[in-house]
Specification:
164 residues; alpha/beta; Trna Endonuclease, Chain: A, domain 1; five-stranded mixed beta sheet
Amino acid sequence: MEAAPDIADLGREQVRQLVARRFLGHDLTDLVAEVLQAQGFAGVSPSPPGADRGVDILAGLGPLGMDAPRLAVQVKTGQAGVEELRQLRGTMAHFSAEQGLLVAWGGFKGAVRAEARTSHFSVRLWDAQQLLDQVFDHYDKLTPELRSKLPLTRIWALASTDTP
């Protein structure tokens, strides 16, 4: 007997494909900025399209977004390597950011995750799966404009088919 398809996996893949089509280039930066705002960051400031000098988003806490932790974010639509991680660390120092986030929709090359471990308390990595997790966790707090570009609905399904 053939196993039933995993509906959650199918749905997640559909969302991944939609994000890949609708949030190309700088639009992916806008999506990440919205997620950060939904998480409670203030003063979220995406760079305009074009050369960004190593930082795509700056954010912080507090009413003006100037309180710690201050966050510097680099967003890549493709893969990111160790060079991008090292660049992010330099950008963090330049902007006096205590924390950094490297988002790479295409994943990470080589030893990026191993090298990022040395910055465990200051740097996080998000690939497509981690970004989608954040979108799902904070979807209700995203702006109506973004939700119209990414129309999602929650569904409930049995966790197991062992139930009579």
